[in-house]
């Protein structure tokens, strides 16, 4: 691969790493069993308290033996949503959604991608460069949790992972797709100059340089900045991620998943922060330009993380989209 191309891909991986963890509060409750359906609890009526429901942890192995850790919540017969986080993050990214009363009537599933959180962290770069491996772990989670026809939510790298799954397994069993500031094509014209500036620093092998750049990079992910405590937790999760994830992903030969989404027959909701400093809205507009059953929703008070920065609106839109997708 030419050095210029490899440098750009490294920057793209750094861009995808802008996905940030939303582990902003302690978990309210967790299920104790790793098998069966999670209990479903209705939200407290007309209160300001976050929705509280039992979480059920699970562990599943992907086709290449990588162990994946996740959690499920809600009635197993309810409409389903599978959340896929971004690079250097974890399932904790979706804490606000798991606690959202607007999403209380749905089956919610989140998991840690390979190399992240509590999932296995292979040292081989090959574990991350092959798009099929990302696709296989989504399929493994769907099977392990008994999802029948979920909506896939893909944030940043998660959008790439969702596209990889559609590419390999097709969309017949996917009710809809919500792409959140997603990277679906590794192309320099769809990334901002600021994102390009992080190309070297966020993938540096110099620990001090990479540490400082990671903090700056996370700050650039928000229009509404997190609190100091929230940012500290996000940085901890970033530090748990295997270095091989970045180094392997930049070597992928699957550079463009736009055709996959355009060929997908189901509905697509594109969620994008108007103040995203790293991904041009043109990335989302690629899909709406060529997919008849798609809609772009711009979040005027958000940067790269609208589900975190404007969670109430995001939850309402995701609930409406998922309900309609399951009725189709």
TrEMBL record:
InterPro entries: AB_hydrolase_1, AB_hydrolase_fold, AB_hydrolase_sf, Epox_hydrolase-like, TAT_signal. It comes from the Bacteria. Keywords: Hydrolase. One of its GO terms (molecular function) is hydrolase activity. Residues 81-311 form the AB hydrolase-1 domain. Pfam families: Abhydrolase_1. PROSITE patterns: TAT. This is Alpha/beta hydrolase. It comes from Tistrella bauzanensis. The lineage of its organism: Bacteria, Pseudomonadati, Pseudomonadota, Alphaproteobacteria, Geminicoccales.
């Amino acid at each position: 691969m030419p050095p210029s191309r490899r440098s750009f891909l490294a920057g793209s991986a750094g861009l995808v790493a802008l996905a940030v963890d939303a582990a902003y509060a302690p978990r309210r409750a967790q299920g104790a069993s790793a098998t069966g359906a999670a209990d479903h609890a209705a939200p407290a009526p007309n209160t300001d308290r976050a929705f509280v429901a039992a979480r059920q942890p699970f562990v599943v192995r992907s086709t290449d033996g990588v162990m994946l850790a996740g959690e499920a919540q809600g009635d197993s017969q309810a409409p389903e949503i599978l959340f896929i986080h971004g690079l250097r993050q974890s399932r904790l990214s979706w804490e606000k959604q798991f606690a959202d009363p607007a999403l209380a009537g749905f089956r919610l599933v989140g998991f840690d991608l390979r190399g992240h959180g509590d999932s296995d962290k292979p040292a081989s770069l090959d574990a991350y460069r092959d798009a099929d491996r990302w696709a296989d772990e989504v399929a493994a989670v769907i099977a392990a949790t008994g999802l029948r026809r979920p909506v896939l939510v893909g944030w940043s790298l998660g959008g790439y992972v969702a596209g990889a799954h559609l590419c390999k397994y097709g969309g017949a069993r996917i009710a809809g797709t919500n792409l959140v500031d997603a990277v679906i094509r590794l192309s320099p014209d769809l990334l901002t100059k600021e994102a390009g500036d992080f190309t070297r620093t966020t993938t540096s092998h110099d620990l001090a340089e990479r540490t400082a750049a990671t903090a700056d990079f996370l700050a650039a992910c928000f229009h509404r900045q997190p609190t100091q405590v929230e940012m500290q937790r996000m940085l901890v999760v970033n530090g748990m991620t295997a270095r091989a994830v970045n180094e392997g992903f930049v070597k992928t030969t699957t550079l463009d998943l736009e055709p996959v989404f355009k060929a997908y027959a189901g509905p697509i909701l594109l969620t994008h922060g108007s103040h995203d400093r790293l991904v041009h809205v043109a990335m989302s507009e690629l899909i709406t330009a060529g997919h008849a059953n798609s809609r772009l929703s711009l979040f005027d008070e958000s940067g790269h993380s609208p589900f975190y920065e404007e969670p109430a609106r995001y939850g309402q839109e995701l609930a409406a989209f998922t309900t309609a997708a399951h009725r189709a």
